[in-house]
Amino acid sequence: MSRKSVKGFNRAGDTAALLVGIGLGCTLALEVISLTSEDLSKTSGLITIASRFAALVGTYLVLVGLLLVARIPWVERSVGHDRMVTWHRKLGPWSLYLILLHVILVVLGYSSNDGIPVYKEFWNLVTTYSWMLPALVGFLLMIAAGVTSYRKARAKMAYETWWIIHLYTYLAIALSFMHQVLNGVMFISHPLAKTWWIAMYIFVGGSMVLWRLLLPLFRSLIHGLVVEKVVVEGPGVVSVHIRGRRLDKMGARGGHFFGWRFLTKNYWWQSHPYSLSAAPHSKLLRITVKDLGDHSRSLAHLKPGTRVLAEGPYGIFTANRAAGKHVLLVGGGVGITPLRALMEEFPKGASIDVIYRASREDDVVLHKELNFLAEQLNARIHYMIGPRAQYPLTPSHMASVVPHIALCDVFVCGPEALVHRVRHTVEALGVPSDRFHDEAFAFHGE
């Protein structure tokens, strides 16, 4: 990719950030225009004003968080899925903190104004104000989604369990919406403010439905995606070959991933992210999946002809990101699969090195294909199979394996720990940050 293209990526991200900032300013203005001298004259009024600001900003961050995972194509292509999911995760806790602050402050403000104990005021608000109880239920659902999204909590549960709990976020937002537009002082007597707020909800909801539901459904029907065959690649690893029509029109490239939904009796309702493990062709796509749970295990039993819905392609982990002719690909375990697809797409004459890190021989997949491609492309594959101490991936170690590493674009895919270790190493060896490209599997499932 040229430097001009990289700048284009940055400009698009800056534009999106600018629009979000303008939206936040307009949202804060909703409260400002509703202020009265009476609100500002009492302590209880000031507390209530603070609670409204917290509610507005917290809810706005929730909506922005949804937009970040709405799969809007031009934003995905410009910013990258991993970065957007990272921002989504960082915004989540802040939105919860602000909404919690709103709950606390509004109870304190009303309690001070009414001259009654806090617990009585809380009960009074929940039982006598319209849509207050649904809003409270919605907030509790958001807390459940937030708690289960913390790294340690999520690591202890199946992806399917986390995904179902996360879906309750949408119910939480719906339950809170009527409370906002019917009880919010900034909306009750200001039709323009109410229109702005409703329009934001419609835009976010419409984006989610359009890009995450309707477009994938339309594309899958147009391209007629079905399972062609399932091939066992090794212990607990299978490749699923997916046949379709005019698949080159989907815009997929090696390094992209899709959200795959296989329409079987037990798993039709689940969408899971898997990267392409071979460069896409006009009639065939392929993914290679390791048994890491119920869904991935079930793929070994897919029958030919099973219909498939595909949401994507997503990601910017593609060959056109490379700025020069020297490329280093680093994969860990099954993380080699998108890199194997990438190998086919670099320009002729590219200098390609591949580092394949695995703990055991059984963890190595697609090695025959990798060796064949290496021979065809005059690439060099460095298998590093064994304990981490044997292959530490330190600056001195990697420089000895790839002496020209400072000239390389580095593509890394695998567990987060591997991605972070390689990032620090190549930075120490002089690789510029804009020539480091990563794909961490942990980000795919949002």
From TrEMBL:
Q: Which SUPFAM superfamilies match?
A: Ferredoxin reductase-like, C-terminal NADP-linked domain, Riboflavin synthase domain-like
Please give the GO cellular component terms listed in this UniProt entry. Answer: membrane
Keyword terms: 2Fe-2S, FAD, Flavoprotein, Iron, Iron-sulfur, Membrane, Metal-binding, Oxidoreductase, Transmembrane, Transmembrane helix
Membrane topology qualifier: Multi-pass membrane protein
Cofactor(s) the record lists: FAD
Segments forming domain FAD-binding FR-type: 219-320
Q: Which GO terms describe its molecular function?
A: 2 iron, 2 sulfur cluster binding; flavin adenine dinucleotide binding; metal ion binding; oxidoreductase activity
Q: Which residues cross the membrane?
A: 45-70, 91-111, 131-150, 162-182, 194-215
Keyword Nucleus listed: no
Q: Pfam families recorded for this chain? A: FAD_binding_8, Ferric_reduct, NAD_binding_1
Cell compartment(s), UniProt:
Membrane
Entry-linked PANTHER family: 1,2-PHENYLACETYL-COA EPOXIDASE, SUBUNIT E (PTHR47354:SF8), NADH OXIDOREDUCTASE HCR (PTHR47354)
Would you tell me the protein name for this molecule?
Unannotated protein
User: What organism does the UniProt record list as the source?
Assistant: freshwater metagenome
Upper classification of the source organism reads: unclassified sequences, metagenomes, ecological metagenomes
